[in-house]
Amino acid sequence: MASSLRSLVNDDSRYQKSFQIFLERSSEHQCLRDFIHNKLPAILASIGDGKSHLNIIGVGSGAGEIDLEMLSELHKKHPEVTVDNEVVEPSCQQINNYKVLVSQKPDLDYVNFHWNTMTASEFEEHWKAEKITKKVDFIHMIQMLYYVKDPEATVRFFQSLLGKNGKLLIILVSGESGWGRLWRTYKTELCNPEISQCVTTGDIKSFLDSKGMSYQSFELPSQMDITECFTEGDEKGELLLDFLTEVLDFSNTASPELRAGVLEMLRHPDCSVESNGKVIFNNNLEAIILDQLS
Ligand code: SAH
């Protein structure tokens, strides 16, 4: 990452604002919901091994909208079962939003929530320090591996917690998405070296393949309307541009050459399609499902 640039993740308030606009302008959550309602139920049906109690961990849960949809599908498949749900999320604001959401849902009596306001690696340290031996039935990390230093080690640790028939669900942008293309071109300029940031499911699948590990995967088609990014000074466009580049105040801190290059790339046919005056960015995601380590 160019030394004059600051990473968006260092400013939680701006990050959350950008993320909100991203959700409004993209079909991100809709495509996750489609996956959760159409594909995930069969996977959830296979976990648990007939137990009356399930352990779940959500890593980087955000405000919990997606987590609660997964819990509801799980409950449909295992109506008699109680659930311990560890929420691992470093943002206090998001943990609070999640708690509010839970308080508004009347039908979550079967779930016991444990709030861990911490990062994935802090949670790993805590788990090891406490010598916790319980096995976990379902772990999900949706759109969060960008924020860890070593995605492979993170996947390995969480996979090691799975019990019999346990599943680990990873969702990230697909290597074939506009994001993948943007990062292949501008990795050195944009990506924060302290974290993995520019990781796609292509990278995750490469290391799984190199270890001969089997997995299931599903492509989740999604789009993002980035038209406002091309109107200089547009507040929402600037927030979206920060989200796309993961750079804080990108327009005002990037060099004119980098800014022009990124804007050109964003509307390039490899990243976006233009129709009816709109620029629609390829936001395709991919889900990877891993079993317990053999
Ligand atoms: N899973 C949610 C939120 C994705 S946004 C969804 O799909 O809607 C990524 C989330 O990861 C944010 O809430 C952010 O606060 C959290 N996060 C950032 N760094 C993290 C880390 N090191 N470990 C765990 N979560 C992290």
Automatic annotation (TrEMBL):
* Keyword Lipid biosynthesis in record: no
Q: Which InterPro entries match?
A: HHMT-like (IPR016673), SAM-dependent_MTases_sf (IPR029063)
Q: Which GO terms describe its biological process?
A: methylation
Where along this sequence does the record place binding of substrate?
E28, N283
Is the keyword S-adenosyl-L-methionine assigned to this protein? Answer: yes
Swiss-Prot/TrEMBL keywords: Methyltransferase, S-adenosyl-L-methionine, Transferase
Pfam family membership, one: Methyltransf_23
Gene Ontology molecular-function annotations: N-methyltransferase activity
Which Gene3D superfamilies does this one have?
A: Vaccinia Virus protein VP39
| Subunit (UniProt) | Monomer.
This protein is called what? Histamine N-methyltransferase
Its lineage opens with: Eukaryota, Metazoa, Chordata, Craniata, Vertebrata
